[in-house]
From TrEMBL:
This is aldehyde dehydrogenase (NAD(+)). PROSITE patterns: ALDEHYDE_DEHYDR_GLU (PS00687). It comes from Lentiprolixibacter aurantiacus. Residues 32-494 form the Aldehyde dehydrogenase domain. GO terms for molecular function: aldehyde dehydrogenase (NAD+) activity.
């Protein structure tokens, strides 16, 4: 019962009914546990992926290690050319891939297309970067000496990604890692394995067309046990992991135990501060998109609004009326604003969070609930809810991956709102709505927001790829995509060259023989 052109999209993306879930490029193999992917949109089976066994994993890593020996010797701008071709293929396949993202993950088709656009954008960024992997030159303290630094490829980069951005987060990592000269092994979320198959098919074709060896892009599939093959593996110098704080702590410890590097992009508890000088119309649009977009399943989703008492009632009323306009339903139908949650476990967490918020004294302003009846057969559709709460509630301190928005009130100076906004363990994204320059600058100052992302008159989600993406505290500290985030995918080497006929020692040390 597939409609909205899903069957056609799957064909264009080379997805089969049963897919081998381990791939080194053109070679696909499988002998692990089977994962079936059901759509949260209509509950239908999309396809099956046979997971990665330990033997499959060994084969993939050995192939990746061999490929690295070739790939690291190819000049970076030529590696950039491969990423350029990958970006071209993504442009051609934007619609089917966006559709698959929407169907397997449940986000709206527009957001699915937006996610593929992020992939295209990071490819363009990486192509330019391939000629700009710059190091510095230094002045040596010794005569006729030269010092400089260069960046070399690291080796195999292990990528563990989450269901909510099933394709873009992989490409943020791979597009940069590939121009940096690394090879990549990717374990997509076991909730969105078909997106993984589709992406691997696309890059495999580019690599094949360029007669490049197997192993530059590898795919593995499975749950945390397959992830563990990578986190414990000394042959993988960098693990980039996106997901919950709980998962991140386990990954970080396993990687640190072998002194590997990890790049962590974990939970957020993102707030928008709304000051008396805010533009209310912009605030409402930003807050509603931030809270209900992707059904509240972005790490950048708006979870808290910290509103000044002077405008509290006005903002509250505007929000409640905006929520009344929301259409919930099939995300491939462009008339709908809000699609389903990823699965029934997520629905249960959403329900428990709402119960807990009420138990802790929260007042429900917009009632939540699970939808049933025609169009909602998958059991994954829920109503976006708004709860008046206090920042000290345990449930407000947690990231619930669902469309629940907490309204918090502040009085007095903006510094009070900033203190509330910072008073959570997470530190990903934050925003202030104000036309008051002093408030905006205080929010952005060293004493302001403690998050990796701090916006003025923009919501908390929807970051552009040109900036470094990630956050502080229990968000994990990692930075992906733009700015100089590429540096983590390379090893820095400091080189000192003596072109004199003497061997003077640094720090003026005398050592006469
Ligand atoms: C995520 O939720 O894991 O800033 C990534 C945003 C998107 C990326 C979110 N560009 O909302």
């Amino acid at each position: 019962a597939l409609d909205f052109g899903i069957q056609e999209a799957l064909e264009k993306l080379g997805v089969k009914e049963i897919n081998e879930g381990t791939s080194t490029g053109s070679e696909n193999f499988a002998s692990g546990e089977t994962i079936s992917s059901y759509s949260p949109v209509d509950g239908a089976l999309i396809g099956t992926v046979i997971g990665t066994s330990e033997a499959d994993y060994e084969k993939a890593i050995a192939t990746a290690g061999e490929a690295f020996k070739t790939w690291r010797q190819i000049p970076a701008p030529q590696r950039g050319e491969i990423v350029r071709q990958f970006g071209e293929k993504l442009r051609e396949l934007k619609e089917p891939l966006g559709k698959l993202v929407s169907y397997e993950m449940g986000k709206s088709y527009q957001e699915g297309l937006g996610e593929v656009q992020e992939m295209i954008d990071i490819c363009d960024f990486a192509v330019g970067l391939s000629r700009q992997l710059h190091g510095l030159t230094m002045h040596s303290e010794r005569p006729l000496h030269r010092m400089y630094e260069q960046y070399h490829p690291l080796g195999i980069v292990g990528i563990i990604s989450a269901f909510n951005f099933p394709v873009a987060v992989w490409s943020w990592n791979t597009a940069l890692a590939w121009v940096c000269g690394d090879v990549c092994v990717w374990k997509p979320s076991e909730k969105t394995p078909i997106c993984g198959i589709a992406c691997q098919n696309i890059i495999a074709e580019v690599l094949r067309e360029n007669y490049l060896p197997e192993g530059i892009s590898c795919l593995i599939n499975g749950d945390y046990r397959v992830g563990e093959f990578m986190t414990k593996d000394k042959r993988i110098p960098l693990i980039s992991a996106t997901g919950s704080i709980r998962m991140g702590k386990i990954v970080a410890q396993a990687v640190a135990a072998r002194l590997g590097k990890s790049l962590l992009e974990l939970g957020g508890n993102n707030a928008i501060i709304v000051t008396p000088d805010a533009d209310i119309k912009m605030t409402v649009i930003g807050a509603v998109f931030g809270a209900v977009g992707t059904a509240g399943q972005r790490c950048t989703s708006t979870r808290r609004l910290i509103i000044h008492e002077k405008i509290y009632e006005q903002v509250k009323e505007a929000l409640v009326s905006a929520y009344g306009q929301l259409r919930i339903g099939n995300p491939l139908d462009q008339n709908n604003h809000v699609g389903p949650l990823i699965d029934k476990d997520a629905v249960e967490l959403y329900q428990k969070a709402l119960e807990k918020a009420e138990q802790e004294g929260g007042k429900v302003l917009v009632q939540g609930g699970v939808l049933d009846g025609p169009g909602y057969e998958s059991g994954c559709y829920v109503k976006p809810a708004i709860v008046e709460a206090d920042n000290s509630f345990e449930i407000v301190q947690e990231e619930t991956f669902a469309p629940i928005l907490y309204l918090l009130k502040y009085s007095g100076e903006v510094t009070n709102a900033i203190a509330t906004q910072n008073n959570v363990v997470q530190g990903l994204s934050s925003a202030i709505m104000t036309n008051n320059l002093r408030e905006a600058e205080q929010f952005l100052s060293a004493a302001g927001s403690d998050c990796g992302i701090a916006n003025v008159n923009i919501g908390t989600s929807g970051a552009e790829i040109g900036g470094a993406f990630g956050g502080e505290k229990e968000t994990g500290g990692g930075r992906e995509s733009g700015s100089d985030a590429w540096k983590i995918y390379m090893r820095r080497q400091t080189n000192t060259i003596n072109y004199s006929t003497e061997l003077p020692l640094a720090q003026g040390i005398k050592f006469d023989l």
